[in-house]
Task: inverse folding
C-alpha cells in the first residue's frame, strides 16, 4: 500500500497459480492417492483441482484458514500411503514436496486437504501465495457484488465435456425454488431442461444480471421510480427524490418544527455522496447491484454501502443503533446503521442535523447523564415528562 494513495488494491493472482501445477492428492481416511492439477481462478475466488476423469473440486479461498508446507504439513499415517511415497526410506524428500491446505467455517471445524508435488519446494510458494490471497482484507470484506460474481465464475468453470454449462448446475446453485429458476432461464431465452446445457458465450455478464433480476425481482423498488417519476424513467432527479423523502419515507407523525422536511441542498448532498453513482445529478435505479471499484476501501462484512440497493443506500447508514426501522419503505426490515447520525426514522435520510436534536437526545425527555437525578434509594433515575 502506497503512502501517497492509501487505497487497498484487490488481490493479485500470480500467473503460475492460474496456470496450475501437478500434484498428488492423498487422503488418510480412504488411503487413496490420485494425481490432480491444482489451480486458482484468475479472479482469486476459488482454489480447485481437476482429476484425471475431468471431475473438478472447488474450495472457496475465503474458507482457507491456514496453509502448511515442509515439516509443518501433514504426513500420511496409512501404511499403504507411506509405501506410495516411500516415506520409510531415509533418503526420501516427502517434506520438501508436501502441501497442506486447512479450510473450514471456523477455527474448530477444520478440513485438511493434502497434496504432494512432483518437484521440490513447489509447496512453499503455493502455501505462501494462497495464504496471502486468503488473508487479504478485500477477500474477507468483499462487497455483495463480488459474491454474485463468484457464482458466475463457478458456473462457467463447471462445464461438461462439450464445454457447455449444464442446466442442472443452476438448480444446484439455487436450490430454494426450482420453478423460479426455470422461469428466470426462460425469461432470458435460455434452455431450462434438466438435461440441457448452455453455451458459455450465450451467458455473458449482462445475461447473468438479467437472470438475477428475474430470479430475485424487486418490484417495490421499481414502484418507487415509476410512482415518483411522470415518465417512468429509470432514475430520480432531485425533485423526485425530495418528493419520495418528504411524502413517502417521512413519518407523518413527526413534528415539522423539530424535524423539518428535507431541503433541496440536503437532497443534493445525498445524490453527491460517493456511495451513490453520480450521473448528471440524478439517482439511478438501484434494483440491481452496484459494483465496487477495484480500489475501494473495505467495509465491514455485510455493511458495504456502494454495493447495496436503494433501501440500504438511503436508510440504514443514517439511523442509530438503538432504533430499528419500524416502518420500512420497501417492505422489509433494515439493520440499523452507525450511531450518532439522526434520531428518528422519518428524518433518517437527512444529513447535517445535530446529533442531539432527536427525541431520545432532547433535554426535556432525558436528563443529562453527567448530572443524574438521585432517587430515594440512591440509584440513578431518568427524568421523564
Result:
Amino acid at each position: 500500500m502506497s503512502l501517497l494513495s492509501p487505497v487497498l488494491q484487490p488481490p493479485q493472482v500470480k500467473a503460475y497459480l492460474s496456470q496450475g501445477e501437478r500434484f498428488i492428492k492423498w487422503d488418510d481416511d480412504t488411503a487413496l492417492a490420485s494425481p490432480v492439477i491444482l489451480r486458482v481462478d484468475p479472479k482469486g475466488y476459488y482454489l480447485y483441482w481437476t482429476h484425471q476423469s475431468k471431475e473438478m473440486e472447488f474450495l472457496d479461498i475465503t474458507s482457507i484458514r491456514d496453509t502448511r508446507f515442509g515439516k509443518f504439513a501433514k504426513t500420511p499415517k496409512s501404511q499403504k500411503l507411506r509405501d506410495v511415497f516411500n516415506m520409510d526410506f531415509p533418503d526420501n524428500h516427502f517434506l520438501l514436496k508436501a502441501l497442506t491446505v486447512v479450510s473450514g467455517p471456523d477455527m474448530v471445524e477444520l478440513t485438511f486437504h493434502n497434496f504432494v508435488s512432483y518437484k521440490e519446494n513447489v509447496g512453499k510458494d503455493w502455501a505462501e501465495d494462497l495464504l496471502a490471497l486468503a488473508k487479504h482484507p478485500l477477500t474477507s470484506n468483499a462487497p455483495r457484488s463480488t459474491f454474485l460474481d463468484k457464482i458466475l465464475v463457478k458456473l462457467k468453470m463447471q462445464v461438461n465435456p462439450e464445454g457447455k454449462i449444464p442446466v442442472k448446475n443452476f438448480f444446484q446453485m439455487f436450490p430454494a425454488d426450482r420453478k423460479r429458476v426455470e422461469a428466470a432461464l426462460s425469461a432470458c431465452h435460455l434452455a431450462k431442461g434438466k438435461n440441457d446445457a448452455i453455451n458459455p458465450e450465450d451467458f455473458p455478464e449482462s445475461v447473468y444480471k438479467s437472470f438475477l433480476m428475474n430470479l430475485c425481482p424487486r418490484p417495490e423498488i421499481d414502484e418507487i421510480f415509476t410512482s415518483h417519476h411522470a415518465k417512468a424513467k429509470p432514475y430520480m432527479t432531485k425533485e423526485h427524490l425530495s418528493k419520495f423523502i418528504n411524502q413517502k419515507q417521512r413519518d407523518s407523525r413527526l413534528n415539522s418544527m423539530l424535524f423539518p422536511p428535507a431541503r433541496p441542498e440536503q437532497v443534493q448532498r445525498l445524490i453527491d455522496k460517493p456511495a451513490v453513482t453520480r450521473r448528471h445529478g440524478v439517482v439511478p435505479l438501484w434494483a440491481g447491484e452496484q459494483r465496487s471499484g477495484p480500489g475501494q476501501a473495505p467495509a465491514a462484512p455485510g455493511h458495504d454501502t456502494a454495493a447495496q440497493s436503494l433501501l440500504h443506500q438511503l436508510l440504514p447508514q443514517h439511523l442509530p443503533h438503538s432504533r430499528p426501522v419500524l416502518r420500512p419503505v420497501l417492505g422489509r426490515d433494515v439493520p440499523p446503521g452507525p450511531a450518532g447520525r439522526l434520531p428518528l426514522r422519518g428524518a433518517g435520510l437527512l444529513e447535517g442535523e445535530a446529533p442531539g436534536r432527536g427525541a431520545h437526545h432532547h433535554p426535556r425527555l432525558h436528563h443529562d447523564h453527567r448530572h443524574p437525578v438521585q432517587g430515594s434509594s440512591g440509584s440513578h433515575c431518568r427524568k421523564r415528562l
Remarks:
- Residues 364 and 385 are 7 Å apart (CA to CA).
